[in-house]
């Protein structure tokens, strides 16, 4: 499986020996690992093999760049039932290859085994290029909170798929032919629009802003993370690690037109679509946006959206009740999002 | 799962952030990954959770040292069904921790998820300490072939377990209480001996000669690999990569007394036990011994057993029929081992 991947300058020794050798010019290696299990982290009915390949790489390299590092190498463990179509494995491999090209890393090794459960294990490596890793514990009172990348689109895409399956038994944008392995993104039934397609695509193939991770490190970010569980929840990790609190300004969140369209389709009442979309931006995970904290006087490029400020750590009472991230000074539960109650 | 592991000097940033940061003082990182799937790579009936933890680490760090590198960091993906006893996960973790201590590496990150199939994904990292990686393609005519570590014991242990299960439905050395998670090694029914216990233990917890990998690199090894599929089969990789052939001298293989005892129990006839044991040494995998090729004038420490020589590459005919590794100048099939026909 690993022989067909292109090499980069970081690959000193590629697949085929006991182990690979990857450049670590900085003298340190950033490393992270994730498991993706069919039925829990992806569904073959909802995502093509190529999508799963893209996503497996994206969520790992997003963690690498969230440390301020540059992606270098990737290792893939692939456990598959014998009846898995060869075409699925080939399309998965193509997705991995293409996402690695987007992120700038290379596949350096892997292991392919049999299993009753289709399972993908990814380990991603990165190089800090001489910078300090941007951890979660460096945020200071007076810093500003910003994000870059998409927020809420993936969650909207997932909600559309769930709604569609519940209604008709066939997911939105997924023809039965698409299930065999070809990329279904863009195959929409009559009536689906570009906005919905974009939300579905972000769910199936998130597009982390890879270059923005090292950029934030160069700009002096004091803390950074990959938004995988939802912005409010993930910024809670920064607050706890840094001993601070964060207040977000809801008016600073400008929903993408695709997201507004999705929340309308999902049933947000007229006049409440912006509110509903903002709640998805606060709570929706898996877009793999980057959230970072910067000193107040840093001039940020415009793709970094400033959405909040860092304040003093709350008292013990606030700490215990988990209210370190507020929106407009108000406590929000689960980022305010409940996809069964959109109104 | 990863918070309880001790740190080493190689751990710059441990578990808990988006990614770990591991020292790579050499400017390169050695990296390898393996998946272990229950029912295919281990059985909970045959190995304790602690054994599985030991083995998962051992087989990955064996690959790292087989490049001539020093183990540094390890990442663990752990996919488990919800009904897995917590005690199993805790014992597995203890096995990982203890084997890391033996190898000299540290656990730096991980991911724990749910799955219907208990699956363990390990990625191991290492540092070359300024040496060139010892690849498979450097063997030259006139070099000598040597190994260090155990050969054949793990295969004998597996054969004993299979024989025992076929005979009685209960594996050798495994009480029913042991299956819940406690280490069963050493729990033998009346009549089992130290030799059999050692073979079972090597199957459950292989003991790779970690220090010998960097040692071989310092001694000038021209090729090296971890013996995981059997010596003859694995040396075939060296032959193909290096464009050479290897002849092994069967008389140079001195079977361990434990191995001789096991082959007697497995049915080798009187007077043929040494032959049978040697066949297991040639074909048995999973002990994770190291096999290396050295220039002829290198003085090897006595734990390196010289067992063969490197010759010129064979002609096209020999290459196509896969006979690059011979024993006493004779072609052997599957290393000469067939555990259904020991006599």
UniProtKB/TrEMBL annotation, chains A, B:
GO biological processes: thiamine biosynthetic process; thiamine diphosphate biosynthetic process
Annotated residues for binding of Mg(2+) 3: 18, 63, 226
Purpose: Catalyzes the ATP-dependent phosphorylation of thiamine-monophosphate (TMP) to form thiamine-pyrophosphate (TPP), the active form of vitamin B1.
Residues annotated as domain PurM-like N-terminal: 16-126
PANTHER family: THIAMINE-MONOPHOSPHATE KINASE
A GO MF term: ATP binding
Family named by the database record: Belongs to the thiamine-monophosphate kinase family.
Residues involved in Mg(2+) 4 binding: 18, 32, 63
Binding site for substrate: 41, 286, 337
Keywords: ATP-binding, Kinase, Magnesium, Metal-binding, Nucleotide-binding, Thiamine biosynthesis, Transferase
Further facts: Reaction mechanism of ThiL seems to utilize a direct, inline transfer of the gamma-phosphate of ATP to TMP rather than a phosphorylated enzyme intermediate.
Residues noted as binding Mg(2+) 5 in the record, renumbered to the chain: 229
Name the record gives this protein: Thiamine-monophosphate kinase
UniProt: Mg(2+) 2 binding residues: 34, 63
EC number: 2.7.4.16
Enzyme class: transferase
Cited SUPFAM superfamilies: PurM C-terminal domain-like, PurM N-terminal domain-like
UniProt binding sites for Mg(2+) 1: 33-34, 111
Pathway where it operates: Cofactor biosynthesis; thiamine diphosphate biosynthesis; thiamine diphosphate from thiamine phosphate: step 1/1
Catalytic activity as recorded in UniProt: thiamine phosphate + ATP = thiamine diphosphate + ADP
């Amino acid at each position: 499986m690993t022989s067909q991947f292109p090499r980069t300058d970081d690959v000193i020794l590629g697949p085929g020996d006991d182990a690979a050798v990857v450049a670590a010019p900085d003298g340190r290696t950033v490393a992270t690992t994730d498991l993706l299990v069919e039925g829990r982290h992806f569904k073959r009915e909802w995502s093509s093999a190529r999508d799963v390949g893209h996503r497996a790489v994206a969520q790992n390299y997003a963690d690498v760049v969230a440390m301020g590092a540059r992606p270098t190498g990737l290792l893939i463990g692939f456990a598959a039932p014998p009846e898995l179509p060869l075409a699925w494995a080939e399309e998965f491999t193509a997705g991995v290859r293409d996402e690695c090209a987007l992120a700038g890393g290379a596949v350096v090794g892997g292991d392919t085994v049999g299993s009753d459960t289709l399972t993908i294990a990814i380990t991603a490596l990165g190089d800090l290029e001489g910078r300090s890793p941007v951890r979660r514990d460096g945020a200071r009172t007076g810093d500003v909170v910003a994000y870059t990348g998409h927020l809420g689109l993936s969650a909207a895409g997932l909600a559309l798929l769930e709604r569609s399956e519940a209604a008709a038994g066939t997911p939105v944008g997924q023809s039965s032919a698409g299930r065999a392995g070809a990329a279904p993104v863009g195959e929409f039934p009559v009536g689906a629009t570009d906005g919905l397609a974009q939300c579905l695509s972000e769910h199936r193939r998130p597009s982390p802003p890879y270059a923005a991770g090292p950029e934030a490190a160069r700009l002096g970010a004091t803390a950074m993370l990959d938004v995988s569980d939802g912005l409010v929840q993930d910024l809670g990790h920064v607050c706890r690690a840094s001993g601070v609190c964060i207040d977000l300004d809801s008016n600073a969140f400008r929903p993408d037109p695709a997201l507004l369209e999705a929340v309308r389709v999902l049933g947000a009442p007229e006049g409440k679509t912006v509110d509903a979309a903002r709640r998805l931006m606060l709570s929706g995970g898996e877009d793999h946006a980057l959230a970072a904290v910067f000193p107040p006087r840093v001039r940020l490029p415009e793709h970094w959206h400033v959405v909040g400020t860092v304040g003093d750590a709350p008292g013990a009472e606030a700490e215990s009740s988990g209210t370190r991230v507020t929106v407009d000074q108000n406590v929000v539960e689960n980022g305010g999002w409940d996809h069964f109650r959109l109104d």
